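Figure 2 data, in text form.
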Amino acid sequence: MEPLRLGVIGTGVAARILHWPALKTLSDRYRIVAAANRTRSKGEAFANMIGLDRSSVYGDYRDLLARDDVDVVDLALPPCMNASVAAAAAEAGVDVICEKPVAATLADAEVIAALPAEHGVKVLIAENFRYENAVRHARRLIDSGAVGRPFMISYQWMQPVPRDDEIAARPWRQNPVHAGGFLTDHGVHMIDVVRYLMGDVASVHAFGSERRDFLTGLDNAVYNLRFKSGAMGSIQWSFSVGSELAWQIQLWSDGVTMTVLPNHILLSRKDQRTEKLQVEGPTSFVNEFEDFYEAIVHDRTPQMTLRDGVLDLRTVLAAYRSIVETRVIPLDEDA
């Protein structure tokens, strides 16, 4: 089968340093045929980097969507733009890859969630953390019954973000129009992972603080979660630590403690030697793009569903409300 013909809308840092390396690896799956950026010079710089002719660069994404050779678009945009651009793509009959979070508001998230039924297209929310190889393997261990059903989870994500960090310095992050700022658009990563491993969240009680003024909002938080299953969990994350990036997930079930790390999983049982499972594979971005290719070609739902994208946003917005209102927020409570 020929590669899917891809249009990239938004050619900034996410497209350049996160998506393009994965797409280059998957050249037998995707072929970039056009790019759009409202600052045309940035679009042209992206085209030069990937070897795309400048005649296929547009300053208006609607001109890209008017082409008859675009099968899929990759939206690497600020969250507040996702709904309108995704809707325009769907109306043109084009499948959509949409960077997380799904939208800036729940109302816009619902607009995107309705697009497949309304226009017969497929939509992937590009939430790459659940596509980490170790996280996927942990989910397989849970689903297979090998480690039992976890009743508790702890997820720590500690990442130093310096003032000159290119991702954090985006204008839309410095002046966010979405509630919670950095807490929402990056904190949604961790919410998705715990939902992927534990199921839907029933309520959240969160605490947050601001330590770096250049991150424009809360840059440290603790989320205490109760899941609909009755299980409990906690997420601790910070973007102002002084050490190197480090993350780990621990899950407890009857008789087994599972520790998930970037390249391996530890299974600890009482009075037994700890079992180490080495985990290897492509990057999470390669995994998510490959999953969407398979979903389109084989007409199935992507592993990261639109329902997941909406519930991730609902949960992280509830966490922000909990911090502001200093109380437990049930997920079924109207915002």
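Caption note: The CA atoms of residues 255 and 270 lie 7 Å apart.
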